[in-house]
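Researcher: I'm comparing several assemblies side by side, and this is the next one on my list. It has 754 residues spread over two chains. Same procedure as the others: predict the full complex and return the structure.
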Amino acid sequence: MFKVVTKRVLSAVNKLMEIEAPLVARKARPGQFIILRVRENGERIPLTVADSSKERGTITIIFQEIGKTTKELGSLQEGDYLSDFVGPLGRPMELPSSGRVVAVGGGVGIAPIYPKVKAFYDAGLEVISIIGARTADLLILEDEMRAVSSELHICTDDGTKGHHGFVSDLLQPLLDDTSKKIDEIIAVGPLPMMRVVAEQTRPYGVKTLVSLNPIMVDGTGMCGCCRVTVGGETKFSCVDGPVFDAHQVDFAELTRRSRTYLDKEKIALEKFEHECRCGGEK
Amino acid sequence: MPLEAEQVKLLRKMKEKHPMPEQDHAERIKNFNEVPFGYDAETAVKEAMRCLQCKDPACVEGCPVEVDIPAFIKLIQEERFAEGIKKLKEKNNLPAVCGRVCPQESQCESFCLRGKKGQPVAIGRLERFLADYELAKGVETPAGPDRTGRRVAIVGSGPAGLTAAGDLARMGHEVVLFEAFHSTGGVLRYGIPEFRLPKEKILQREVDYIAGLGVDFRKNVVIGKTITVDELFDEEGFDAVFIGTGAGLPQFLGIPGENLNGVYSANEFLTRVNLMKAYLFPEWDTPIKLAKKVAVVGAGNVAMDSARTALRLGAEEVHIVYRRSDKEMPARAEEIEHAKEEGVIFNLLTNPIEIISDENGWVKGMECMKMELGEPDDSGRARPVPIKGSEFIFDVGTVVIAIGNSPNPLIPQTTSGLELGRKGTIKADDNGATSRRGVYAGGDIVTGAATVILAMGAGKTAARAIDRYLKS
């Protein structure tokens, strides 16, 4: 059993939890993820490590309450326990040794991009961060991102904070500024956002990375559920990724595969919400 | 009631095994309950009487874990069941599992003298009888031996790991067993379906027995990720490590369309259903999607398990698609028989060449070619050769790929000093010793995908070798 040490509500739909998992905390590095199960009958879901502390023996996860499992996870309080928590899984991200990096985080994707930006920053790289959300209330980790970025640009789809528009609008001038070379771009967010960024940077030939979050079961290469086509080859996101070259990823396939269980997810969510309302077993 | 001498005489002449009652096939495809019911005591004693108690019993040679088969059968003949199970458990820590999933027909039973004229003694069914008898009465844990103070880490709680762990604990060593999943049993848990090996009623009870021997289970630990093998020695203070991580990397066909929605590896398909209990969705959260018509590619035990699982999930038509003929099918005869009874359709000498997409990226068919058998290939089996112009399209909406697994690379990739085989297996000698001192390995990670009992045999051999190593 794995204890919820702290819980913070970041926005109407985003929550942060620090989970006691000393073995995982000892090893976790930026780019890696964990798999958890809230309780015995639960599904295994992957979440990126947002932060970790060897000293406290904890892993920080940030999640958007979107389906049954994340809503149930969000209903836990400090002192409650998760039934399972395993990791760190996936390959750690490789750090460029020097240069100028642009980090793009969209929505709950700001959470997984944060540890990467922090690692870049700690390694002495120049990091320009662009974060965006649908609306100001959903923008998370602004202060944390600012603390580890050389520059921070903000946008919201509805203009309630920062630039009125999309992350790609803010990325464009950086790409066009030929006086300052960008060595690497890393983008994490909803699939459509990552796809747009990949297409946007492709003509410029700038190395662009994305961190994928496909459906998984075991997370150790055993089931192949998370397979994704990268450069024409099938890769398992759990063991070969989750960070891949954005220009090589088949986003159309990935988007389609991520929708495999939409109808079932709806059934599970409706059942959960019904039980919550009726005070039934959670 | 002891049998009359006359009766015994007749039983000794009986050419066939006593049949084991089982669920009717029309009924059983609607549930996940176990198919065979097992022998009752009376039938078990009668079947045991068919054993001739050979002076030089060949059957024992056919048992990878060296069970004294005539001895436990004799105890059944004498209705001394409690002693019988003890005898069995001297060598086999998982008798209820083995009595269900061992391919006895190609192991112990294939050596049985009775099999020369008629059917061999039903050794597997008798083993199962004793194990179930004990489970029903309550399992006894043998007294703990003196502790040696040496620590052994076992990686993977499948058949190899459980066997090695149980044996080493009985030898007095401190044993910690690491499992990556949230639940123990390895392939017995995620791979073999409930209707062949009930999880709570049987598997969990045998795992509990191993725990009762003093084995400390640590779930949710991925060796190679959470802790490396190197760290098990250097930081965690283990004196020896046994690696039994199995063949957990699914192979695909490499044909177009394999990443369409509705294509599963058998591992994913079975894991969703067995480990994650997708058949109980939405009571359990993990879903599975199944079309009315399902094709399972391959003809091994895993393919049969997948096909029979698909039927139980409500598929109307389930096809086995296999590129060779019925003679080459690697599955156990019993599994093929069960699948046929249940209505699985066998399409032999048929090879998939492309999985076809509908307008939304879901499977809507599978293009196949008819094959004919040519000269034997490297495996000694007749090589299937495509027949020109024989392409046709199977109208299916779900495809399960069950053509085998490769060894899981997590440990080989993260452990120093391990010599590897050609296909990513870990090299080990006959005792399970790897190229690195103190590291032993056994089961599918060494042999490539094989059987539960061979993995158990490897676990047993390695446990003995580890014991010698720790005492040297």
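Model: For your comparison table: The mean pLDDT of chain B is 94.
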